[in-house]
Amino acid sequence: MPQHKPMPAPRPSSSSAFSSASSSASSSTDGTTPRSRRGVLVTTLTAACTLALTTPGTTTAAAREAPTETAADRALRAFLDHGPKAAVLTAAHRGQWRKAPENSLPAIEAAFADGAEIVEVDVQLTKDGVPVLMHDDTLERTTDGTGRVADVTYAELRGLRLRVGLGGRQAALTTHRVPTLADAMKAAKTRGLVNLDQAWRDREAVMGVLEQTGTVRNGLFKSRAAVPEVRAFRTRHPDALYMHLVDDDNAGSVKEFGDAAPPAFEIVFDDVKDAVADAAFLKGVRGTGRVWINSMRDEFAAGHTDEASLIDPARGWGRLIDTYLATVIQTDNVEELKSYLAKGPVNQVPPGAVRVQGEAYAPGKEGVSYHDTDPGNRGDGPGRPGDGVDICDHDGAVVVCWMRGTEWLTYTVDVPRTGDYTFKARVSSPYSPAGTYRVAFDGGPASGPVQVANTTAHHAFAVQGSGVTRRLNSGRHTLRLSLDDKVPQNWNLDYLQLEPVRR
Question: Over the stretch 345-357, which tens digit does the pLDDT of each residue have?
Fold first, then answer.
């Protein structure tokens, strides 16, 4: 007797099918901690999926006509799954702004290409009512324009150019333009979901765009509005995806939703003692939907940040997943988070390289191991008692800050093997020019000037090469980093790195 096997289920063609998938996942949830952060996405069969039986070698007409499942379909199914084995999803904050201007079409495309299931964008309305992507109410930070978004027409807006990365008035201009929300949703239609930040105030206009572009099930609304207001919107638009933002001030809204809870709650806490960070509260939320936590800045998750994660995941992403039950993490480090979820700790020192944290300068007093132009630690970070070196904490990155001309720092480095090494530094600065430094080894002559490039924000760190290469024997060496005088110096130093030159 021939063995029968189920054929692939056709893609659900109606929004009610997705609703059924959500209900099925909800009924099976037991509120337990999600499985390992390395878990792969588990596809579950729901009432929305129809199974057909066929004998080997035959194909039904339904199977031949079923559309190919897209990445967006998979992302939606994953988002609606909040069972105990639900995979942790990655949301890209303002798109992949490290590779393109924030809130731009290339940033959206790059985020999906790097593995994000969700891209967060910000929505504003122009004077003539066109929803566009823009975080600020004003144009100065991210474009070459001035004034308020609400005071310019889209025709005027489209003539402006976007600035690189996170922008800033000294960031370089690009050829990219401010996209409309319609452009963004078309770009995401087959790629993934879009978190529509700041869209609630103009939700009907935004909903109109989603309906016109056929992307209602791609767009994710969010707000911290009163539950009756949210309920009314969801009643008018039952196909719309919605996430509720919760902090200590509105923690009661979770229970107020009752059996009609949205598929996700964004949890915000700036202290581990906050009510919404309590284990019992989070378990209750996790039992009704996904727990979304932001890891970009200290105040979003009590210091469990991207930067802390790059030092030790147990201080950031790992803690958010294991202790705070996060099943969606919004990040500024898409590739690193995806790598962590798949393989574990990230930001490892390259093979054969030497890394020294900026604040780990050699022991000694002023004029011996360092020179700083003003007394005391001007930063908010954990500087050495009695030392005058300025140390700041930028959302988990402990850095040397308040750089000034003529200052210098000395480091000891242990080189593992004799060879040629190139010098790199992980830095940040929103200024152009940001600063200039020189490097000297073992008391020898200093290198030529090395320019620090604008990274578009104090918290936007990047590893930058110097062009400085030295032949170093195995063993201990001293390295002095000195700042040029009479040139602007306004940058932050996270760490130094000597990498072997591969021939």
Answer: 999 999 999 999 9
Beta bridge partners of 320: none
User: How far, in Å, are 96, 115, 168, 174, 472 from residue 164 at the CA level?
Assistant: 11, 21, 9, 6, 37
Cα 395 to Cα 308: distance, rounded to the nearest angstrom: 8
Q: Which residue has the tokens 């996942």?
A: 25
The pLDDT value given to residue 65:
59
Q: Looking at residues 235-259, what average pLDDT do you find?
A: 97
Return the structure tokens found at 180.
């409309």
Question: Which DSSP symbol is given to 158?
Answer: T
For the record, the structure tokens of 130 come out as: 């066109």
Distance CA 425, CA 237 (A): 51
How many residues are present in the chain? 503
- Which tens digits make up the pLDDT trace of 154-180? 999 999 999 999 999 999 999 999 999
Tokens of 206: 């935004």
pLDDT for 104-117, tens place per residue? 999 999 999 999 99
CB 401 within 8 A of CB 370: no
Give the H/E segment covering residue 211.
helix 203-213
Q: How far apart are CA 443 and CA 53, in angstroms?
A: 78
- Rounded to whole angstroms, the Cα distance separating 486 from 232 reads 62
Determine the Cα–Cα distance for residues 465 and 451; give it in Å rounded to an integer.
Answer: 10
Task: Quote the strand ranges of 442-485, DSSP E.
Answer: 450-452, 457-472, 475-483
DSSP 288: T
Q: Smallest Cα–Cα separation from 20: which of 290, 374, 263, 313?
A: 263
- Cβ atoms of 144 and 132 closer than 8 Å: no
Distance from C-alpha of 118 to C-alpha of 280, rounded to nearest angstrom? 27
Q: Which residue has the tokens 């009752």?
A: 258
Cα–Cα distance, 453 to 136 (Å, whole number): 24
- Give me the residue label for tokens 């800033």: 168
Name, in order, each residue with C-beta under 8 angstroms of 1's C-beta and a sequence gap of 6 or more.
Answer: none
What does DSSP say about strands 89-93 and 118-125: parallel, antiparallel, or unpaired? parallel
Task: Write out the two tokens for 384.
Answer: 């050495």
CA–CA distance, 141 with 136 (Å, rounded to integer) = 8
Which pLDDT value is given to residue 86?
Answer: 97
User: What is the 8-class DSSP label of residue 355?
Assistant: E
Helices and strands in the chain, H and E counts: 13, 22
- The set of residues, in sequence order, having a beta carbon less than 8 Å from that of 29 and lying 6+ positions away, is 82, 83, 84, 286, 287, 288
Long-range contacts of 361-369 (CB under 8 A, 24+ apart): 361/389, 361/400, 361/409, 361/410, 361/411, 362/410, 362/411, 362/412, 362/478, 364/410, 369/409, 369/410
Q: Which of 141, 146, 133, 149 is nearest to 171 (CA)?
A: 141
d(Cα 255, Cα 175) in Å, to the nearest integer?
48
Task: Report the predicted TM-score, pTM, of the whole model to 2 decimal places.
Answer: 0.86
